[in-house]
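Field reference: sequence -> structure
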Amino acid sequence: MQDTRPLLLPTDFPHISRKQIDTLQLNLGYLCNMTCSHCHVNAGPTRTEMMDDALIEKIIEFMQSQPIQSLDLTGGAPELHWRFRDLVKAARAADIEVIDRCNLTVALEPGQEDLLEFLAEQGVTVVASLPCYSEANVNEQRGKGVFEKSIEVLQSLNKLGYGIDQSRQLHLVYNPNGAFLPPAQDQLERDYKEQLGNESGIRFNQLFTITNMPIQRFGAQLMAKGKYNEYMTLLKDNYTPGNLDSLMCRSTVSVDWQGYLYDCDFNQMLEMPMQLSNGLSSSDLIASETNRTHLSDVLTADFDGTPIVIGEHCYGCTAGQGSSCGGALG
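Structure field:
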């Protein structure tokens, strides 16, 4: 697989710094029951990288010592981690919102028969990937039969009050199925609600549109098709300075399965560790793994004002209406 990382490190993206953190985003590991073409972490059924028990305990300690308002659980399929439910319970006991980034089909896996009931009982916010309301488009991007399974799980979530009761939020995620920017989020949300409601009776709260990043699996596809430069030109031509202040990296700490800190999930996949010292340049940090910071070393650290490590991929979050794990920025 071709690596776009060397092309992304030299950048003219504006320097930005962090505000006070309120969101802890954890990648619990790369094990997943699916292999999606747009997946920026290359997750799949054969991956074995997973957080260990000692690190899970440190995560709980970190949540108790920092002003965390949201725990954002990702993977792979985060539900497949053996301590997923322990983390959820610990966060909810501390009145921290829990976001489960769910591929939906995981709820149909052996051993997950009571997953949806658990999420509902704990009041977990479900952010579910459904890259289109078209069966053909979803199956092309995520695999044969995935759309039908996703609809089945969404209907089960609705029966539990998700997308209906205020305490059980259900959001869907759209990713473009190609090298183009997402359409206007508000209009696409209306289209999703109309199509899914009329055809399958599905109800949900919001649609999040997320721009595909030119990294990992999607980046390799761009390179193989000779479209990398074209896509980067698209992102940079649509750069919107007004999105800078709302970037998710300003208030989020991203933690990999080994416990190392990053400014965002994309930097994590590019092995661009968080920079906590103003005395180090981004290039110094990127060049050496010895500069990585482990969560266990910063349980009570003040992250406010620390610089954010940037690259060309950051234009993906600022292009057009902007992009974040919570959808469009503007």
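Note: The longest helix spans residues 185-200.
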